[in-house]
Amino acid sequence: MTQAAPLISAHGLELSLGGRPVLTHVDLAIQPGEIITLIGPNGAGKSSLIRVLMGLVRPDRGEIRRRPHLRIGYMPQKFFIDPALPLRVTRLMTLTAKAGRAEIEGALGETGVAHLADAQVQSLSGGELQRVLLARALLLHPDLLVLDEPAQGVDFGGQAQLYRLIGDIRARRGCGVLLVSHDLHLVMAATDRVLCLNRHLCCAGPPEMVAKDPEFIRLFGEDAAGAFAPYAHGAHGHDHAHTLSGEVAPATDPAHDH
Questions:
Q1: How far apart are CA 151 and CA 182, in angstroms?
Q2: Which of 96, 104, 110, 238 has a CA 20 to 30 Å removed from the CA of 219?
Q3: Bridge partners of 16?
Q4: Which residues on neighbouring strands pair with residue 28, listed in sequence order?
Q5: Domain limits, the chain
Q6: Span 8-71+142-250: which CATH code?
């Protein structure tokens, strides 16, 4: 069986900002239904790479190919709302896409926050806001979800739930996911491949392989490599479950949402 064409691919990307190299010789491809997590130290070029892939920044060199009519749902790393500006969740949802009430509530329900449809955005907790922003990205019916630090501002138990939710969305919708994360201790819970970026791609592959790569260990240390180990997946999928606190537990019925 031939492999489906990538949703998006990049070859030989190079980018400099202010005379400083930000990306050098970056090659990657994202397949339909694949979750890729992009990791790297601060200043590694992760956000710049996302902007280039989305077409927001033109690279100095290299080629980007996107599947025709590719729909991208984007969840930003930072989202600021003026506290003095009244803004309901339903209005926030339609700032980037036209949708009716039923569609909005459906997307919010998919991320577990349908009850917040009429809430003021300023009243939301960090975890609630992230789920609303994820629902907003889903309104675009994306072929590719781009999630920049989706668990930022969420407590540890909420992070574990959010990563599980992202995996469930991928399974249900069949979309690809490009996820930027610093949560090395949780990243394996919903990742098929890891790309380790430090202006260039230092290493790439399944999480358990990247954790053993000398370049990964040089950047993040032995402790980070050890943190990956408890989340290793079975050859044909999860062979364990995660509690709401992020701890590993024996596998449960796949239909059970933990």
A1: 9
A2: 238
A3: 21
A4: 10
A5: 8-71+142-250
A6: 3.40.50.300
Distance separating alpha carbons of residues 116 and 156, to the nearest angstrom: 22
The CB density around residue 71, as the number of other CB atoms within 10 Å, is 13
The answer for residues whose C-beta is within 8 angstroms of residue 78's C-beta and 6 or more apart is 152
Please write the tens of the pLDDT for every residue from 37-94.
999 988 899 999 999 999 999 999 999 999 999 999 999 877 777 777 889 999 999 9
How far is Cα 87 from Cα 91, in angstroms, rounded to an integer?
A: 6
Question: According to the model, what pLDDT value does residue 98 have?
Answer: 87
pTM for this predicted structure = 0.82
Are the beta carbons of 231 and 248 closer than 8 angstroms?
Answer: yes
Can you tell me the distance from the alpha carbon of 258 to that of 252, in angstroms, rounded to the nearest whole number? Answer: 9
pLDDT digits (tens, 9 = 90+) for 150-180: 887 777 778 888 888 999 999 999 999 999 9
**pLDDT, tens digit (0-9, with 9 covering 90-100), for 170-222:** 999 999 999 998 777 676 667 899 999 999 999 999 988 888 889 988 888 77
